[in-house]
């Protein structure tokens, strides 16, 4: 499907907007962000998806995008820097 970017983007946009429509149908918001936050988020996702298809190619086809996840996990969960989360190490025998 990646060989046909217009078709792929269109299908992904339809699925995203369909999910947004279902979500907005069953929820009732009371605040500004509750009413418009999900719509802003869906617009952001559509823009990022359009940039993915229409943006520049990666400089190296062998670049590993999972490294970004590992870096983010490292900063979000500092207890895992040693490789063992606190919840697991708390259950371990001394």
Biggest sheet architecture:
none
Unreliable runs, pLDDT <50, ≥5 residues? 88-92
Question: Which geometry do the CA atoms define?
Answer: extended
- Structural class, from helix and strand content? mainly alpha
Give the helix level as a range of percent: 55-70%
Domain count: 2
Succession of helices and strands? HHHH
Q: Mean pLDDT score, rounded?
A: 74
Strand-residue proportion: under 5%
Separation of the first and last Cα atoms: 52 Å
Tally of separate helices:
4
Radius of gyration: 20 Å
Number of strands: 0
Keywords: Membrane, Transmembrane, Transmembrane helix
Q: Could you please describe the fold and organization of this structure?
A:
There is one protein chain. This protein is mainly alpha-helical and 94 residues long. The chain has two domains: 1-56; 62-94, no CATH class. The chain contains four helices and no strands. The chain has helices spanning 5-26, 32-54, 66-76, 86-91. The chain is extended and about 45 Å long. Residues 88-92 have low confidence and may be disordered.
């Amino acid at each position: 499907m990646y060989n046909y970017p217009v078709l792929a983007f269109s299908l992904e946009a339809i699925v995203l907007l369909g999910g947004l429509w279902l979500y907005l149908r069953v929820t009732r918001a009371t605040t500004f962000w509750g009413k418009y936050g999900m719509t802003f988020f869906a617009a952001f996702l559509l823009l990022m998806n359009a940039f993915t298809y229409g943006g520049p190619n990666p400089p190296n086809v062998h670049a590993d995008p999972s490294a970004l996840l590992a870096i983010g996990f490292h900063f979000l969960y500092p207890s895992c820097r040693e490789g063992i989360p606190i919840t697991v190490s708390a259950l371990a025998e001394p």
